[in-house]
């Protein structure tokens, strides 16, 4: 299953990088469910997400490993876990391009494989998962743009 998207964020690339390169900060933007991130070491995390609006509310636990960190332009990771008795494995990456000092293009992609009984439903869940990912990115974008605007406002007050 392949998911991807591109969005432009009205925020400095360094601000976007600071958030996406820290799984705890990135999870704070999740509005679709409650996410908890446990740091195991600098490259490994355990992510627990409560999914309340699924057909059956469930909790998903994924092990995330950062596989590539090229500050401030690219981050990649693998994930593995079990959902409803079936394995979930995947890879993903985010690339950041500075369009101007206060505008960043974020391109993201994820490839996932669902095992067990879920594997039979992969084509059915791709659309809802793409939509959920886009909503998560939109949430992240709104948060980063609000932080950028607040920082600019504070800078104007200090300068004035």
Note the topology.
Layout: E1 2-9, H1 13-20, H2 23-27, E2 34-41, E3 44-51, E4 58-70, E5 74-83, E6 86-100, E7 103-114, H3 116-119, H4 122-159
Antiparallel strand pairs: 1-7, 2-3, 3-4, 4-5, 5-6, 6-7
CATH top level label:
Alpha Beta
Number of helices: 4
**CATH homology superfamily name:** START domain
CA radius of gyration:
17 Å
Please give the domain count: 1
* Widest sheet: strand ordering: 1-7-6-5-4-3-2
Described by strand count, sense and barrel closure, the largest sheet is:
7 strands, antiparallel
Unreliable stretches (pLDDT < 50, length at least 5) are none
Write down the overall geometry.
globular
SSE order: EHHEEEEEEHH
Overall mean confidence score, pLDDT: 87
The name of the CATH architecture is 2-Layer Sandwich
Strand portion, in percent? over 45%
Number of strands: 7
End-to-end gap: 52 Å
CATH topology: Alpha-D-Glucose-1,6-Bisphosphate, Chain A, domain 4
The class by helix and strand makeup works out as: alpha+beta
Q: Work out the helicity level.
A: 25-40%
């Amino acid at each position: 299953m392949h998911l991807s998207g591109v969005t432009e964020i009205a925020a400095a690339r360094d601000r976007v990088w600071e958030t996406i390169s820290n799984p705890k900060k990135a999870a704070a933007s999740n509005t679709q469910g409650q996410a908890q991130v446990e740091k195991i070491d600098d490259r490994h995390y355990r992510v627990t997400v409560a999914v309340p609006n699924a057909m059956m509310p469930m909790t998903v636990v994924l092990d995330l490993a950062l596989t590539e960190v090229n500050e401030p332009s690219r981050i990649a990771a693998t994930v593995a876990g079990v959902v409803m008795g079936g394995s979930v494995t995947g890879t993903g990456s985010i690339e950041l391009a500075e369009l101007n000092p206060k505008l960043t293009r974020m391109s993201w992609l994820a490839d996932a494989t669902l095992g067990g009984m879920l594997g039979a439903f992969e084509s059915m869940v791709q659309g809802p998962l793409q939509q959920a990912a886009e909503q998560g990115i939109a949430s992240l974008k709104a948060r980063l743009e609000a932080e950028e605007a607040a920082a600019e406002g504070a800078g104007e007050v200090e300068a004035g």
